[in-house]
Write a structure and sequence with these properties.
alpha/beta, Aldehyde Dehydrogenase, Chain A, domain 1, Aldehyde Dehydrogenase, Chain A, domain 2, seven-stranded mixed β-sheet, six-stranded mixed β-sheet, 14 helices, 18 strands, 20% strand, globular, binds nicotinamide-adenine-dinucleotide
């Protein structure tokens, strides 16, 4: 069985990849299991060197990886270059880990007590279609660094860059069975990662609905799991903020990657006293977003990933949805949807309560700080968000009040490879990136060595 890969900007077929069967998945897991003892036994400095070589191989291939992502996922070329660079950076960052997986020596009576950070075994990484390269890297880089072997399933729609990354790993000298990319269906390959007893951990990024099933399935074997799920994030703009900057940047905080971003700030909450002024500033900023061929330098937004997803996003902008203004989108083939600003709209409209995962943003007014925090938290998600104010005390108070894992003040940044990333509430479980992610790929072993008194 094979699956056709479609370019979402042109609807042309760009490749065909195999759909791995259950039996083939089992065989890949068996190879990963067999490769584990020798991989964990590689000397720390040598494992570090292999990861640095993998990072160098990615660095030398940035343009090819980026072009592949433009063709497969419709990402803008600028974003796709950043994404390939992020894989390199994450590999570089975790290449320092093998030589720094410190345990502890804890004072006890009658001997010495040591802890070891032991690898888990085979780690299954399940990747969504919205950021195929970075999300793959956030799983496989720390997993490999900690001494695990990895089987990785890219999303059905976007397998091409992950397959290329596996080739680069081999070129860098990482043994074939240590890092395998297995394209196929979630219900076949992904499910098998959950049910196969030799997969000791599942790293899942995707929808909250599938994440809940994975968590329930992993419970059967007390399998370790990291979940990065959906978001419905607030961009909170107070009256004392730099309104020009807040309005100029707000479109990019939600329309980047055509809104197909778990961190998209899809609810802009604006203090009522400056609401009209903010909307007047937002309109030219939205019409200035350059939606065009994603392969052209300078394009700021490309198409949606598929025809099905286009229909889903379109269903949120029906006759019940008040559209304040819209940006542009090309006509012709491709899954295009223009940047769309919804207002005035109540907090219970489904365009506000759901994760739309497209270039649609709702703008709602709030009265005071308490009201802003209440509205921001009026969701079962808790992934990211932004706070715009010149009052540092308010910035800290509101940051502490908003129940989300990744907040930014007077900016919209959520992701840095050296800082933790993950969700509160139904946005996830566990943290990726940063110094602590390695804990999610190891188990702590405690060893007491008795020493007799002379
Ligand atoms: P999805 O849940 O449909 O699929 C994600 C992955 O899971 C795919 O590889 C898919 O094949 C696989 N899968 C599907 N069913 C499965 C099953 N039963 N068992 C095992 N694997 C299965 O999500 P999607 O539509 O690809 O991605 C969009 C979602 O991902 C959005 O909700 C978005 O918010 C979320 N997301 C979250 C983060 C984060 O870091 N929190 C990052 C990116 C995307």
């Amino acid at each position: 069985m094979t699956t056709q890969v479609i370019n979402p900007a042109t609807e042309e077929v760009v490749g065909t990849v195999p759909s791995t069967s259950v039996a083939e998945t089992d065989a890949a897991i068996a190879r990963a299991h067999a490769a584990w003892p020798s991989w964990r036994a590689v000397a720390p400095a040598d494992r570090a060197r292999l990861l640095r070589r993998f990072a160098e191989a990615v660095d030398g291939d940035i343009e090819r990886l980026a072009r592949l992502e433009v063709a497969n996922s419709g990402h803008t070329i600028g974003n796709a270059r950043w994404e390939a660079g992020n894989v390199r950076d994450v590999l570089q960052y975790y290449s320092a880990a093998p030589e720094r997986l410190f345990g502890k020596q804890i004072p006890v009576a009658g001997g010495i007590n040591l802890t070891f950070a032991e690898p888990l075994g085979v780690v299954g990484v399940i990747v969504p279609w919205n950021f195929p390269m970075p999300i793959a890297g956030w799983g496989f880089a720390p997993a490999l660094a900690a001494g695990n072997t990895v089987v990785l399933k890219p999303a059905e729609l976007t397998p091409l860059t992950a397959l290329r990354l596996a080739e680069l790993a081999r070129e860098a000298g990482i043994p074939e069975d240590v890092f395998q990319v297995i394209p196929g269906k979630g219900s076949v390959v992904g499910e098998r990662f959950v049910t196969h007893p030799d997969v000791r951990k599942v790293v899942f990024t995707g929808s909250t609905e599938v994440g809940k099933r994975i968590m329930a399935g992993c419970a059967d074997q007390v399998k370790r799991v990291t979940l990065e799920l959906g978001g419905n994030n607030a961009n909170v703009v107070f009256a004392d903020a730099d309104l020009e900057r807040a309005a100029a940047t707000a479109p990019y905080a939600v329309f980047d990657n055509a809104g197909q971003d778990c961190c998209a700030r899809s609810r802009i909450l604006v203090q009522r006293s400056v609401y009209d002024k903010f909307m007047a500033l937002l309109e030219p900023a939205v019409s200035g977003v350059l939606v065009d061929d994603p392969g052209k330098d300078g394009t700021e937004m490309g198409p949606l990933i598929s025809g099905d997803h286009l229909e889903k996003v379109r269903s949120y902008v029906d006759e019940s949805t008040p559209v304040a203004f819209r940006g542009n989108a090309p006509g012709g083939p491709g899954f295009w949807f223009p940047p769309t600003v919804v207002a005035p709209v109540g907090p219970d409209h489904r365009v506000v309560t759901d994760e739309v995962f497209g270039p649609v943003v709702a703008v709602l007014p709030f009265d005071d700080e308490a009201d802003a925090v209440r509205l921001a938290n009026d969701t079962e998600y808790g992934l990211s968000g932004s706070i715009w104010t010149r009052d540092i005390e308010r910035a800290i108070r509101v940051s502490r009040g908003v129940a989300a894992g990744n907040l930014s003040v007077n900016s919209h940044s959520s992701v840095r490879y050296s800082t933790p990333f993950g969700g509160f509430k139904q946005s996830g479980l566990g943290r990726e990136l940063g110094p602590d992610a390695l804990d999610a790929f190891t188990d702590t072993k405690n060893v007491f060595v008795a020493i007799e008194e002379l």
